[in-house]
Design the sequence.
């Protein structure tokens, strides 16, 4: 879908993006996570063809952005951090103007515009001047222009900046709905934003890709273990006696817990990343006739993943890597599959 190879953008002595490479697959929501100034917006502007890279290559649906810019741009709908709205127009007039720019056939204008208005839920304000709309509705109008014409790829740069909590929830629901029919790249420095909607997370800092994987896999890579949380209807000493017999468990912690008035034991199990212990745990407790009330993976939060991955990942003013505690997590497609 999108292939980014050795991408760099340099402004004088400042390296905004530094040898960045990643692959975007079809039909997923990707969270592009990083602190302010990490290079997220610059990368998105290069993917969309808004600015040219200093070095590197971007291929969108088989089209090189530098060599076939029009063909590449046809595949992309883009919502920048500050939507380029014409405030003297109504949303309907603006979308009609955008349809002309996107070269959507005239006989499809009405159908496409109405579909975008309906999907972004701006029917009630479609004939009001954009200048009189709230921040939330202006953001929705920007969203509507991004999805107009049903592009295969939707790129959203900080789509919830300046929105109130209710508007943020509505925007997240809209992004999830887009993910059912489009490939979505969502840029944000807000962890909860990325965690709430993303199938896969890319962590960038100082213009470099530090990690790319699913949230669960990132958690496992950072901790170096596969962790499982159990709730068992049994005293803690019986739970310990079963766990001691499971060889694949490297360590465990148990504590007493109540569940709807029942005496239970909560156990946190750790094992090697290469080992799935769920089946052996299930059969061990079944053989001991101790019922498992719940079993679920136990992962550290995305905030903790981000802090651990970026800890010590600094670059100097020319983008040269300085040493850090955590090695970059960069799993290629074959490894993820």
Sequence:
């Amino acid at each position: 879908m999108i292939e980014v190879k050795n991408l760099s953008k340099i402004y004088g002595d400042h390296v905004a993006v530094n040898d960045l490479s990643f692959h975007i697959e079809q039909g997923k929501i990707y969270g592009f996570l990083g602190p302010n100034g990490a290079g997220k917006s610059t990368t998105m502007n290069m993917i969309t063809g808004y600015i040219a890279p200093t070095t590197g290559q971007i291929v969108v649906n088989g089209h090189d952005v530098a060599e076939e810019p029009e063909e590449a741009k046809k595949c992309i709908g883009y919502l920048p951090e500050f939507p380029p709205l014409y405030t003297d127009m109504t949303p309907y007039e603006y979308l009609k103007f955008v349809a002309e720019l996107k070269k959507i056939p005239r006989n499809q204008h009405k159908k496409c515009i109405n579909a975008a208005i309906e999907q972004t839920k701006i029917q009630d304000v479609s004939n009001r001047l954009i200048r009189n709309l709230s921040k939330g509705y202006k953001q929705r109008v920007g969203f509507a222009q991004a999805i107009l014409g049903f592009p295969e790829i939707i790129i959203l740069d900080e789509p919830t900046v300046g929105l109130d909590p209710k508007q943020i929830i509505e925007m997240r629901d809209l992004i999830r709905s887009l993910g059912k029919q489009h490939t979505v790249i969502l840029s944000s420095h807000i962890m909860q934003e990325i965690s709430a909607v993303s199938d896969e997370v890319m962590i960038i800092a100082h213009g470099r890709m530090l990690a790319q994987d699913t949230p669960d896999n990132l958690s496992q890579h950072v901790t170096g273990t596969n962790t499982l949380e159990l709730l068992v209807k049994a005293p803690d000493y019986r739970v310990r006696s079963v766990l001691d017999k499971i060889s694949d468990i490297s360590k465990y912690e148990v504590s007493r817990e109540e569940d709807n008035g029942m005496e239970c034991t909560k156990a946190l199990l750790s094992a090697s990343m290469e080992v799935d212990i769920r089946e052996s745990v299930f059969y061990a407790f079944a053989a001991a006739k101790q019922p498992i009330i719940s079993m679920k993976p136990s992962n550290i939060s995305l905030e903790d993943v981000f802090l651990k991955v970026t800890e010590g990942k600094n670059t100097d003013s020319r983008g040269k890597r300085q040493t850090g505690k955590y090695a970059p997590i960069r799993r290629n497609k074959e490894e993820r599959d």
User: Anything to note?
Assistant: The longest strand covers residues 14-24.
